[in-house]
Structure formats: structure tokens, C-alpha cells
Structure prediction request, 193 residues.
Amino acid sequence: MAKYNVVFVLGGPGAGKGTQCENIVRDFGYVHLSAGDLLRAERQRPGSQFGEEIEGHIRNGTIVPVQITCSLLRRAMEDSGKNNFLIDGFPRNKDNLDGWNKAMEGVADVKMVLFFDCTEKTCIDRCLNRGKTSGRSDDNLESLQKRIQTYTNSTMSIIEHYKKMDLVCELNGENSPDKVFDEVKVALDKLSS
Ligand code: UDP
Ligand code: MG
Prediction:
């Protein structure tokens, strides 16, 4: 048996991944690891050799090489001392998927993929709104358009890959946070029963 249980959380920028992960942590006791947050923390860490590379990818909406992201995830998993993880915003492309499979085989089992589906318009509106207070260097229209392009061109096929493995629980991210969470609860209850 693998050491760690993992639920991946995917969806476009602003689809509600972070919001729903907070709810899940509160009610289900998973450890929430946002790949984007881990990369932003690494970018800020004094002495990090990856800071500039990470910032370039974040602004451009492109994807950081998997060796960097996967080692940050793995270290956070080990440091937590826990076993059940929500990994938010990863894997986003084939490089991420292949790197994860190689590094985590026998270490972590992917139990489910929560996929928040949302229109492009909603994603853009929400992120621009968030950008008023988030201080994020990528919550602006130019970065957002690139992020959505990356999502469409690279991340959708990862969701398709997990659909074929029958691991995807698809939720309508257009709905209110409460309504979405009602559906998330049903999915996670099934997983733990
Ligand atoms: N990112 C990445 N690899 C990951 C997760 C994030 O390269 O596994 C980078 C990528 O440039 C992305 C940015 O971090 O556009 C922000 O990701 P985050 O998940 O925080 O954005 P969200 O989708 O939640 O708005
Ligand atoms: Mg997020």
C-alpha cells in the first residue's frame, strides 16, 4: 500500500479550487497543498535558485518544470506527517503527469480528481476581481489570457487522461460555492466509505 492518498483538484484559473479546498480541509481533514502557493513561497525564499524561473512562468501562464514542483510537493507531504492530501492546481501538463508518476509510484495513490468546470468568462471575471486585492502578478488580463490558453492546450488532456481511468468527479464551477461544496461532500463521502 502506498504511503499517501491523494486527491487532485483541477480546473481553470478562478474555477474555485482554492475556495473548495478550504471547505474540504475544514470538514474532511485533508492537508491542502496548492502547487501555485508552494511555487510562490519558493519564489520568495531568500537564496532560492529557482525564484526568477518560477516568476517568469507565473507571469507568462506557462508551467514550471516538474522537478521543481514535484519536489516541493513531496517535501510538503513528508514534512506534514499526514497521509491524506488535496493537491490543488497540479498536474497541469504531460511533463507534470509523467514526472509525478515517475517520482511517486508506490509512494502516493491518486484516489480521485475533482474537476471544477467553468466558462472562460467566469474565470476571467473572478480572477480580475481577485486581482484587486490578491497582489498576484498573474491576476491581470494579459497573464490570464495566457493562463487560459495553457489550461486549454495542456491541462484539459490531463483531465481526459484521468477520465479514462474513471477517476474524475466533474462539478459545475459556475454554481455558488455552497452548492458546489454540497456536491463535493457527496463525492468525498463516497471515497471514504
Ligand atoms: N504553476 C505551475 N505548476 C503547477 C502549479 C502552478 O507552473 O503545478 C504556475 C503556473 O504558471 C500557473 C501559476 O503557477 O499559471 C498559478 O497557479 P495557481 O494554481 O496558483 O493558479 P489558479 O489556477 O489557482 O488561479
Ligand atoms: Mg488557486
